[in-house]
Design goal:
alpha+beta; seven-stranded mixed β-sheet; six-stranded mixed β-sheet; globular; TldD/PmbA_N; metalloprotease
Length: 480
């Protein structure tokens, strides 16, 4: 990537940015950084064959952060005029110095920076062969129309289809008081089909989606077919499903979308801000065994074209693969620069933000459990009586205690090692650390789900999740 392109996009020079960080530190802060963003957003919604909404807009600006001990000052400007940026830098400086400074965070060497090249674009984890900004909305409409046609023709019980295409392209440039300049271009394309079915007076719904960091080359005939097939898959079982008898029992979680339980019930508890504040059930447990040694859990910013991929995080730290749990041992928290300095370790590339209007905090990227060695059919066959689940929604988690509740959208009874009657309207209730320690088998079929996952933790950021088929020996199933 061309450094001059980014400097021209944001109409700034390196000397200007150097002066801005000095202005931001004028009241004595430890470190400051600048985050420039220029994002084009597009959206097109087709409901029952008619375009009901659509739009195109640009978000442009710079966020300026100052760190002073435990105190953070943050301000932003929606333009990059010299006077406006200077005012934002002064505001951030004033906020950071607005209370007595603490010195609980040690300051190693040179500010908050890891060791990497001072001016660079990231590894090419994503690219746009057909840039979204080169395509008119009218050219995108036929894709959604074909998607609706294929879904409608695939099942006679379809009564309503809502198809949506959302896309964006972000140019990001970051500079800090250590003189590091980093930049990144981030494409994103997302397609969602929400379908309502009616059969003999009963209504069911299904959603299928795909999201990747890519350009308009995403919109292929194979994607159309994949989404259409997924949108109607399993509907017979949904109409037949009943609420089973509840209780404590073994639960087999299917590969792929079941990874949302891993993200919510365990991943958040590994984020370093919760741990350094003592709010996570995993606080102080680095180096301890937390589950069977067959289990490794990863948060990965390097999965190519993945929705959660980051060539650089939003603090300018290179994207990387982080083992939170390695061979059953709690190996690492997910760090931004602040928590990394507090723990005296290198940042893991997890400092993320919704936009230039937000301060970065530790966030997940693509979170998954690595494959084990057991064939998934053998895992099911090992269960005499339990349930199999493969799609969750509406989860609730208490980070401090680790307790979770998830609503199951689809699943089956397991009886004598076989999947039998379909089930619905049940909750899975448990405790994250306990569930982790109760995992008895890990399948050899890791699947990363490429749906439109978005994580909300005061801010919204794109993520993905995945898991192989796993057996949890003892969870509470809320049924009849």
């Amino acid at each position: 990537m061309d450094k001059q392109y980014f400097l021209n996009t944001f109409r700034v020079t390196v000397p200007q940015m150097e002066q801005l960080t000095k202005t931001a530190l004028a009241r004595g802060g430890d470190w400051s950084d600048l985050y420039f963003e220029n994002t084009l957003y597009g959206d097109l919604l087709l409901k029952d064959g008619e375009v009901t909404s659509g739009g195109l807009h640009t978000d442009f600006g710079v966020g300026i952060r100052v760190l002073s001990g435990e105190k953070t000052g943050y301000a932003y400007s929606e333009n990059t005029g010299e006077n406006d940026m200077r005012e934002a830098a002064m505001a951030a400086s004033l906020i950071a110095s607005g209370s007595a400074r603490t010195h609980d965070i040690p300051k190693p060497g040179k500010g908050l920076s890891p060791a990497f090249a001072p001016a660079c674009g990231g590894d090419v984890l994503y690219q746009s062969e057909i840039p979204w900004e080169s395509i008119r909305a009218a050219e995108l409409l036929p894709f959604l129309e074909k998607l609706q046609e294929r879904i409608s023709s695939a099942d006679s019980r379809v009564v309503k289809i809502v198809a949506r295409l959302a896309y964006s392209h972000s140019d990001i440039m970051m500079f800090n008081s250590d003189g590091e300049l980093t930049f990144d271009s981030r494409p994103m394309g997302s397609v969602t089909a929400s379908v309502i079915f009616n059969y003999k007076g009963k209504t069911e719904n299904k959603t299928a989606s795909r999201s990747f960091r890519t350009g308009a080359e995403l919109l292929t005939d194979s994607l159309l077919q994949e989404l259409a097939e997924e949108a109607v898959k399993g509907i017979d079982e949904r109409f037949e499903a009943r609420r089973p008898k509840g209780g404590r029992m073994p639960v087999v979680m299917g590969a792929g979308a079941s990874g949302i339980l891993l993200h919510e019930a365990m991943g958040h508890a590994f984020e370093a801000d919760f741990n350094r504040k003592g709010q996570s059930v995993f606080a102080g447990k680095i180096g301890r065994q937390v589950c069977d040694r067959s289990i490794s859990i990863v948060d990965d910013g390097t999965v190519r074209a993945n929705r959660g991929a980051c060539s650089f995080d939003d603090e300018g730290v290179p994207g990387q693969k982080t083992w939170m749990v390695k061979d059953g041992i709690l190996n690492s928290y997910l760090h931004d620069r602040i928590s990394a300095r507090w723990y005296g370790v290198a940042p893991t590339g997890n400092g993320r933000r919704e936009s230039f209007r937000y301060n970065p905090i530790p966030r997940m990227r693509a979170t998954y459990m690595e494959s084990g060695s057991v064939p998934p059919q053998d895992i099911v066959a090992s269960v005499k009586k339990g349930i199999y689940v493969d799609e969750f929604s509406n989860g609730q988690v208490k980070i401090g205690e680790g307790d979770f509740t998830f609503y199951v959208k689809s699943g089956f009874l397991i009886e004598n090692g076989r999947l039998t009657a379909p089930v619905k309207d049940i909750n899975i209730i448990g405790n994250g650390p306990q569930a982790l320690s109760d995992i008895a088998c890990v399948g050899n079929d890791l699947k990363i789900d490429n749906g439109t996952w978005t994580c909300g933790k005061d801010q919204s950021v794109p993520v993905s999740c995945g898991i192989p088929t796993v057996l949890v020996n003892n969870l509470t199933v809320g049924g009849e």
